[in-house]
Request: fold
Amino acid sequence: MLLISSQKLFFPLNNEYSNFSSIFTLNYKVLFMNQQKYIEDLKNIKEMMNKSSKFISLSGLSGISAGIIALIGAYFAWITIYSKTGYQDFNRTLLNNDQLIELLTIGIVTLLLALGFGLFFTRLKTKKLKQKVWDSQTKTLLINLLIPLLSGGIFCLLLLIKGYIGLIAPLTLLFYGLALVNASKYTISEIRSLGMLEILLGLTATYFIGYGLIFWCIGFGLLHIIYGIIMEIKYKS
Amino acid sequence: MKELLKNLNKAFENRIRLGIMSALVVNDYLDFNALKNLLGVTDGNLASHLKSLEKSDYIRVQKEFLDRKPNTKYSASDEGKLAFIRHIKAIEQLLK
Reply:
């Protein structure tokens, strides 16, 4: 551009040259404007692809609330399991039927509360983004999440009936992680790494069997809260 | 420069048509209402842009009935996908 204007200065009276340079400037101007437009276009394409194929309204607050509820649930579970046993028997406990039923109730209440709050915060966010909660993206996300999650859930219930209680905490973490990784294609990208961490945690917990509740607190409590905060900061708009 | 501009597709110069194609290449199909919600445009506006894309054979249209209500599904044709990829490549070349 500078070169062109200097040309103009050097040959102010030469018609042929000034004509040439003005066409040149015009060409460049058009190209520059087009460049802005195409940068915008690429941005729009990316946004439209994400918006149409992924569920992006996942709220960070739902992660935080799920984490807190999980920690409270774990606290009640801890009371149920260890209130009658000594501190030294921390990783070796036998459960009777009453305790089992109590634990199951705690588990179900925790799950329902976490889901309820999650849905509530997500609803708030979809309203903000002017998207529908229930559309084809949500459907594909849920289906892909539920296939590993339900099979894992049923598997854990069967283990519970058969008495393999120690494996339940690690396996819920493992299956939850697998479900997240499977569903991550249809939502924000952070869910994938969260899933991987849950899988790792599940495997570690299987090795350190008997400390399931602690790993459970890290996986369902801490990780959810951390990821919730990250998402809340990153996608706040 | 002329060479680069030649690869750009006139059909995708419009924002709405570009949006329709972007959404259709990453989904198996979308119906009229889904597209309308995504793009936030009026019925008539969307319909005319869909028509022009249909005329260039970039999208396929499938009409059917859902609960006795007409429902139109749109999907990107192979030709449309190819043209769209070529268009994006041309933009990327241009911005280099």
